[in-house]
Design brief:
- By secondary structure, this protein is of the alpha/beta class.
- It has one domain: Vaccinia Virus protein VP39 (Rossmann fold, 3-Layer(aba) Sandwich).
- Helix content is 35%, strand content 21%.
- It contains seven helices and seven strands; from the N terminus they run ααβαβαβαβαβαββ.
- The protein has a seven-stranded mixed sheet with strand order 3-2-1-4-5-7-6, covered by helices on one side.
């Protein structure tokens, strides 16, 4: 019989999570994301860049009954925006996940998500246009002891600059490094 963690990861795979390497059948990043969401203190949680919701349906299991959930995305930037947003809504309904959807560029709509976040997963615009804006806004919304994770860290693509932006932020703020699995890196905000 599967446990709750395995069930959560199965949800993510079925919902076609971008964190699942379908070529290698590798779910390590989904397990890591679930574990981070479970480790984070109780309180509100958000994902920035939800696409169709594959990663949300994974980590939301670890957050059940522990705070409000938020999904931030600008579906207009994606191919087939109406279908992708509909797929997200369908996936949330399929797994009975109550989540507030915030439409728009993450840096423009961040004010619609409360401060004091306990878990935050950033998987939005990975370019020089987007990730610096996300790094300038979302860590400040994290509660002491809260966790932030970034996807596509270290991806070998000249248009994906997550690693250089996150590394610069890390050198400046020195949050506790919680590990890296695949292209997902995570940090805990210090309790001062």
């Amino acid at each position: 019989m599967k446990n709750k963690r395995d069930d959560a990861v199965s949800r993510g795979i079925q919902a076609q999570a971008m964190l699942y390497d379908h070529n290698r059948k590798d779910a390590a990043q989904l397990y890591f994301l679930y574990d981070l969401a479970l480790l984070a203190p109780s309180g509100p949680a958000v994902e920035v860049g939800v696409y169709r919701g594959g990663s949300v349906v994974t980590w939301a299991v670890a957050r059940e009954g522990r705070g409000d959930l938020y999904a931030v995305d600008d579906w207009s930037l994606k191919n087939k925006p109406a279908q992708n947003r509909a797929a997200f809504v369908r996936n949330m309904g399929l797994y009975n996940i109550e989540i507030e959807i915030v439409d728009g560029k993450s840096w423009d709509v961040a004010y619609q998500v409360p401060d004091g976040l306990c878990f935050c997963f950033i998987d939005g615009d990975h370019s020089y246009y987007g990730i610096p804006r996300d790094v300038a806004i979302w860590p400040d919304k994290i509660a002491p002891g809260g966790i932030i994770a970034f996807h596509d860290y270290g991806v070998p693509n000249p248009f994906v600059v997550v690693k250089c932006i996150v590394d610069a932020w890390d050198r400046k703020y020195k949050w506790e490094h919680l590990g890296t699995t695949g292209s997902t890196i995570a940090f805990r905000k210090p309790v001062r």
